């Protein structure tokens, strides 16, 4: 999708229970270990049709193997982008200044490499296997760094790091060096970030449900395939079950060890 390329020139990510592959104008999600081999879900950007659609493909269903789960017009999303404007300002309100004295007084430690986010960080802890990025456990362990002194944070490269208190992760820190060489430190509470994500997930889900093309209108578009409400709910639950497994949203849990990936 676009000119962006994943580290190691990979085509996607492979996890213990799923594969996600990025193609020119679509994203393909493949659950692993299901009862229907070859079944997968595709989010199509609709660059030509002007319609974003999510559909399920199940080769075992024969002629009825393609089923649309959700569809929305580009123009409807663009006309309602203003509803998401407060999201950015609310996110910035979560950011707090971070001071070393405060860390010392509260006995809070820091560590690099816990949450690989940048391309360089992801490349350092993964390898390409069958076109997909998979975690190399040894590389991941080697990338972790817990400084002996908090002042060593100034030697970190710009980017994120983790904050820990009594062995529990409590937040995400950020280091940013401005054009004058001045280092700035910030952080976000893990609890605040989760609350923010949950709230906006519901708001955006409700908005998309309101903008979605009604099932009875699918017949107006040759590439949309209607399905029963019950089967659509079943498919959505199946996708959510894989995404909601413990560690499903963390990079080091999202990718799997060599030999555990399967191609879509």
Word description of this protein:
By secondary structure, the protein is of the alpha+beta class. The chain has two domains: 7-84 and 201-254, no CATH class; 85-118 and 144-193, no CATH class. The protein is built from eight helices and 13 strands. The chain has an eight-stranded mixed beta sheet. It has a five-stranded antiparallel beta sheet with strand order 7-13-12-11-8. A hairpin with a 2-residue loop joins strand 9 and strand 10 (132-135). The longest helix is centred in the last third of the chain and has 22 residues, at 190-211. The two termini are 17 Å apart.
Radius of gyration: 21 Å
What is the ordering of alpha helices and beta strands? EEEEEEHHEHEHEEHEEEHHH
Low-confidence stretches: 228-232, 245-264
Tally the structural domains: 2
Task: Give the overall form.
Answer: globular
Strands of the widest sheet, in order across it, are 6-5-4-3-2-1-10-9
Using DSSP, what is the number of strands?
Answer: 13
What value does the average pLDDT take? 86
Question: How much helical structure, as a percent, in the residues?
Answer: 25-40%
Count of discrete alpha- or pi-helical segments spanning 4 or more residues:
8
Q: Quickly give the structural class.
A: alpha+beta
Major β-sheet, in short? 8 strands, mixed
| Share in β-strands | 25-35%
Span between termini = 17 Å
